[in-house]
Specification:
Strand order of the largest sheet: 2-4-5-7-6
Largest sheet: 5 strands, mixed
Strand content: 5-15%
Number of helices: 7
Number of strands: 7
Shape: elongated
Helix content: 55-70%
Radius of gyration: 37 Å
Order of helices and strands: HHHHEHEEHEEHEE
């Protein structure tokens, strides 16, 4: 459970600190100076402390010291302490001899020397004040990040309710279809596996290559039913089953074939897939024997290139080779 202080903003906390400082000063002066003089001197002293502290942590330190102007910073601090000390000393002298003292005494700069010592101490304390503010701001930011993370996790759990409900429904339909229409049941099973992969595995950094290939096979199986004549598919696979790759990396080439690269009424559709691991690289090549429709192809391939660039920088290779009666897409990614 958060305390009341933890719920304060940085500004509110600073006001609370200055109010406490003012009360301490007022109470300490009250026995000697009385209420009126104590109140005025409290305002003068508090203003002096605030000028030195905020002048240093918000003006001089970030704009001079942190920018590398060290000598100018030291000179500016001396000027700040001098002017603030003179201002404090003059105001204290003026208030005292103008309103509270029966005898007048001229103002002398020597009266300010003792105040400069207090100003130096206040200057040193300003760094502690700055660290305290920075800590409190960091703590607030951390709490906000934790809160946002908790909300995101809650929203994620909520978002998973509907997909898993759908999975259960598909399973029920699958068992019913298995009895009456086994071929339809197989398609429902493929669809359920595709959806489960997208929901559960696509958000991961890496998945096993076997899962990615199974996802491709399920997708191809569903797309095949849309063709009047089943495509001749050749899928060559040579890789270590323990290999891990980013999810949804292979689907773009295959999706591009079925969406833009083949004639669904053709009797001679040929699709060749080669997924081969050689040394420290994984090669993926997709070939089909039809003309790519220029109106639709391209956006998915462009997005894939951008993703590969983010994942591998200059270490990958991707080529797209449209021909008169065929289309070939290829990429090579590092495995280490």
């Amino acid at each position: 459970m958060n305390t009341s202080i933890e719920k304060l903003t940085v500004t509110q906390l600073q006001w609370l600190i200055w109010l406490s400082v003012s009360m301490i000063i007022f109470v300490s002066l009250l026995p000697m100076d009385g209420p009126a003089q104590s109140a005025i001197n409290t305002l003068i002293n508090t203003a002096f402390y605030a000028t030195v502290i905020y002048g240093n942590i918000y003006l001089l330190y970030p704009r001079l010291y942190q920018q590398g102007h060290r000598l100018l910073y030291v000179f500016s601090v001396i000027l700040l302490l001098a002017f603030a000390g003179l201002g404090r000393g003059y105001l204290s002298w003026y208030v005292y001899y103008e309103y509270f003292s029966p005898q007048f005494k001229p103002f002398k700069v020597s009266m300010v020397l003792n105040l400069l010592i207090g100003g130096t101490i206040t200057y040193i304390l300003s760094f502690i004040f700055r660290i305290a503010i920075a800590y409190f701001e960091l703590k607030k930011e951390t709490e906000n990040i934790v809160l946002q993370k908790s909300k995101a996790e809650l929203n994620l759990l909520k978002s998973q309710v509907q997909p898993h409900f759908l999975f259960n429904t598909l399973n029920n339909i699958y068992y019913q279809a298995y009895v009456e229409a086994p071929k339809t049941a197989v398609l429902i099973e493929r669809l359920a596996e595709i959806m489960r992969y997208i929901v559960d595995d696509s958000i991961k950094d890496k998945v096993s290559i076997d899962k990615e290939v199974q996802f491709l096979e399920n997708y191809i199986g569903l797309e095949q039913i849309r063709l009047l004549h089943k495509a001749k598919l050749d899928f060559v696979r040579q890789y270590d089953s323990a290999l891990q790759i980013p999810p949804m990396l292979l689907i773009t080439f295959v999706e591009n074939v079925f969406k833009h690269g083949i004639d669904k009424s053709s009797k001679e559709t040929i699709i060749e897939l080669k997924l081969i691991q050689e040394a420290d690289f994984l090669h993926f090549r997709v070939f089909n024997n039809a003309i790519v429709k220029k109106s639709g192809a391209g956006s998915g391939l462009k997005n894939l290139r951008q993703r590969l660039n983010l994942l591998y920088g200059q270490s990958f290779k991707m080529t797209v080779e449209p021909a008169e009666n065929s289309f070939t897409a290829y990429f090579k990614i590092p495995l280490s």
